[in-house]
Specification:
CATH topology: Arc Repressor Mutant, subunit A
Radius of gyration: 16 Å
Strand order of the largest sheet: 1-3-2
CATH architecture: Orthogonal Bundle
Helix content: 55-70%
Number of strands: 3
Largest sheet: 3 strands, antiparallel
Distance between the termini: 16 Å
Number of domains: 1
CATH superfamily: Winged helix-like DNA-binding domain superfamily/Winged helix DNA-binding domain
Structural class: alpha+beta
CATH class: Mainly Alpha
Order of helices and strands: HHEHHEEH
Amino acid sequence: MKPKCCSNKKLSKKFVDLAKFLRIIGEENRLKILCLLKNGELCVCEILENLDLAQNLISSHLKVLLDFELIELRQEWKRNYYSINQKTFKKYNLLLTNFLKDYEK
């Protein structure tokens, strides 16, 4: 009997989303940004201080994380503050946990 995730030629939407999530967080600099944000909200200037990247590259990574709703943006005057989107992380934590549980014996 085939597992549910392989029961048809197309993966279900949740497995497609999980694969995209893993690709996004699998990029080293995005993972570093998420690690920095784990302790709380930061502005771009604070993220810049902690990474050896140009600001335009950091902004590009932040856009990918924002588009996938892994982080949230709060604007205060001329500054942008970023934080972890807890709701999205809970969703993917549950998906990944359930996926990996299928491999336990």
